[in-house]
């Protein structure tokens, strides 16, 4: 969809000079369209390039966990994030992280005692909320909990395709799969429904926040859940998540895979 | 640069319809100079943009620690890495990470008992080896230990200016500063000389690898040294490094700051 929008916009811009050229063309030459080369205001391009650099720098700071907790994306990077999320950038990054995780998963020698575990987060890791965020300015709006809950309850978030492939691959290799999400127990039903609809199955355990976890930061809650897995004898060999709070803390995985997400931050 | 590429590509596409319209134009109009449009080889431009996306994706994967240990940058990204390192990109990223670290440092309430610590790595964190890597294809060459040692022994690596500012800021705030480097004890002299020449002073301790540390991975060696600091009662509140092996492991800092480095990887 974004591609055809881009193409439309593109064609429109291409035709603009032709439209204006009619006005200034001497009537004698009107038979041949004059090649209008004065095109597009150059200074804005320089600004654009400068802005692209600044926003790329912001994205890297966000993705490497260098930023303090943030509530919205920078205003100036709204268009940048939109282009990234709806264009090839996000898609390429998702593919690469799953490929790298897949190479690693294949390289691990499993013990075969059923205690080799891989953890997946859900939102922006297995399931994509991009349809929701496309309607909410890709992170420029402050997170609206009730609105997002409504979206979650529709159970219609699509799979992130490379994540689905990785998911199936690690299952096939013999890992136990744990889904560890910040979603709450009240959403267990819709979450299972959504996961199944999107093609995910055969997970070992789906762990959601219970009421006593509400006050905890994600890092704390997820660390506790990983601690429990380790106590139960699991070896956490892989962990996929779009937030550093999925990956850091105690009982960290042997390898962690950070999926891209420049739209929101969870502590 | 990519912007002007985009502009070129754009103009080219805009003129394409005109080019084709010529075929059907009556020959009597040949008196008017024909707009010569096909000026730039189109495929390479499109390839460039595609390549920029792929290499940005590779850099994201490298900087978020998603890649398996790697020995050289991808051949296809040689030019991309060079442009990033010598252009505004690297410089902007360095500035941002030090700014973020500075905001955090100021926000921390220090105990005042002299046990609040900030750790800095040295190479590509306080000192820049860019003059060396500029002569060694910015990471496209496999690391040449003897050659690099010669460079280290010249003690002429410049400071990374935003890191020097951060360094002075955290000292002034009252942090104890520890320098924790993968360099070996035999380079203590030249390292101190280089640091002083570049403007660094008043560190509390400079920790280098002793002979028993040679066999250890950086993550292991640096974790052990942090464990010792904690045993001595230090609270590690900040840690700046260009490698994840500076930051991950045991006794991790309350906040870690990952400086950019797409040129090499240390386990």
From TrEMBL, chains A, B:
Family matches, as PANTHER family: ACID PHOSPHATASE-LIKE PROTEIN (PTHR31284:SF7)
Top-level division of the source organism's lineage: Eukaryota
CDD domains: HAD_VSP
Signal peptide (from-to): 1-21
Keyword flag Nucleotide-binding: no
Record-stated family: Belongs to the APS1/VSP family.
Organism lineage string: Eukaryota, Viridiplantae, Streptophyta, Embryophyta, Tracheophyta
Record bears the keyword Glycoprotein: yes
Pfam families: Acid_phosphat_B
Species the sequence originates in: Punica granatum
Keyword annotations of the record: Glycoprotein, Signal, Storage protein
Protein task: May function as somatic storage protein during early seedling development.
MF (Gene Ontology): acid phosphatase activity; nutrient reservoir activity
Protein name (database record): Uncharacterized protein
């Amino acid at each position: 969809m974004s591609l055809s929008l881009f193409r439309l916009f593109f064609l429109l811009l291409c035709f603009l000079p032709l439209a204006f050229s009619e006005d200034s063309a001497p009537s004698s030459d009107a038979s041949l369209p004059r090649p209008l080369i004065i095109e597009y205001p150059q200074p804005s391009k320089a600004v654009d390039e400068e802005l692209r650099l600044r926003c790329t720098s912001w994205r890297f700071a966000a993705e490497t966990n260098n930023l303090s907790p943030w509530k919205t994306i920078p205003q100036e990077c709204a268009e940048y994030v939109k282009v990234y999320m709806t264009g090839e950038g996000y898609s390429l990054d998702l593919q690469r992280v799953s490929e790298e995780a897949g190479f690693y998963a294949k390289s691990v020698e499993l013990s075969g005692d059923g205690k080799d575990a891989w953890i997946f987060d859900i939102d922006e890791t297995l399931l994509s909320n991009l349809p929701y965020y496309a309607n909410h300015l890709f992170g420029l709006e402050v997170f609206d909990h009730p609105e997002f809950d409504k979206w979650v309850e529709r159970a219609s978030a699509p799979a992130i395709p490379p994540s689905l492939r990785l998911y199936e691959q690690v299952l096939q290799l013999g890992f136990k799969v744990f889904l560890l999400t910040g979603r709450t127990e009240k959403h267990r039903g819709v979450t299972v429904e959504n996961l199944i609809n999107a093609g995910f199955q055969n997970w070992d355990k789906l762990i959601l926040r219970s009421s006593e976890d509400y006050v905890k930061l994600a890092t704390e809650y997820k660390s506790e859940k990983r601690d429990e897995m380790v106590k139960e004898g699991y070896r956490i060999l892989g962990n996929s998540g779009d937030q550093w709070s999925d990956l850091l803390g105690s009982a960290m995985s042997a390898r962690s895979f950070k999926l891209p997400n420049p739209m929101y931050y969870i502590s």
